[in-house]
Amino acid sequence: MVLTLPRPQRVDVQIAVGSLLCGLALWALGLHAQADRPLGGHWALPPLFVLAGLELLRSTRPQFALVTAVLALVADQFTAGNLASVLMFTDIMYAAVVYGTPAAARRIPITSGLVTVALTVVFLAWWQDPQAVLIGVASGIVAFTPAATGVLVRNHREAAAAAKLRAEQTALLAEMDRAQAVSAERARMARELHDMVANHLSAIAIHSTAALSLDDAQTSRDALAVIRENSVGGLAEMRRLIGILRDQSGDLEPAAAPTLDGLGALIAGARRDGLDVALDDARPKDGPKLPTPVELAAYRIVQESLTNALKHASAGRVTVSLAQPPRALTVRVTSPYGDPSGPRAPGSGAGLVGMRERTELLGGAFESGPESSPDGKVWNVFVTLPVDPADEGAKE
Prior knowledge:
Blueprint (H helix, E strand, L loop, with lengths): L9 H19 L16 H11 L6 H15 L6 H17 L2 H26 L5 H81 L3 H30 L16 H10 L3 E6 L10 H21 L4 E7 L4 E9 L13 H12 L3 E9 L2 E11 L10
Parallel strand pairs: 1-2
Antiparallel strand pairs: 2-3, 3-5, 4-5
Helix pairs in contact: 1-2, 1-4, 2-3, 2-4, 3-4, 4-5, 4-6, 5-6, 6-7, 6-9, 6-10, 8-9, 9-10
């Protein structure tokens, strides 16, 4: 089995080459770190070369480099020594804490501190001389100080990485919030566009079809009158919606949001379009004023229900019923269900989706579908809107 060493980092190569050259220069000048050692000056070169080689592994194999460096430094103590060897050992100790595993980063400072204390105590007991404390000071400078410095640098890097991660997560959440806000605003504007314009266009489509299919001058004049009225009304609604979209003030709601007080005009317009509509408003006359979002949602739901009745309902009466039980507003719209006898406008299903979305945004309940009644089969739309925002899913 061949041991493959990782490729050293560029900075590690620079440190190794620079340290080796400095060590060789000190050796050539005869500047040794210590005197009176058993081995001569030439024996200081092997630890110097070993430590320079270990500098190449300071980032990629820090723990292996540290263990081998300890052995090389111990061997260097029996030679004349080299200051560059000691400095390279301190750098390897520092790198082992910074680039090593979290467990090694915790163990190395504690171990080096214990070794420093142990050397001080041993040499004091052996020499019986206060100068032995200098041995502990030197070992602390060589071993404990770089380890402690490595702990500080590692903690700073981890804190910076954690702060960067939090910043990226915050940016991601902000982008998600922005995307959700844009999506919600687009959906709201789509509902407004559909509710404000669809009924006018449906009336235009139905009456233009009738005018084209019936060869009767009076029918054509009546149809053109309805078409003109709905064209003018639809154009006004479109201009108001465009004004809302171009408004830079941040107020994205219509300046004059429709309320339930305008149901009379809405139903009158539906009657002019050809619907037989009856309004049954059972709300108390002196009751508290409803919140604006509730009134807007109820108005739009009635408007969309009348538009659907105009496009899809068969001949018969359409009934709009309002009631206000405690802490809620209920809206029911029933229309004859069956094959329409006259011309009809195509539908996309967006109206039911919009009504359901409006109801769910206010925490209400929405039901729609065919039902049986004493007058035959009808299409029923029933909505419960909580008056108090804290009441979600209120039912009659």
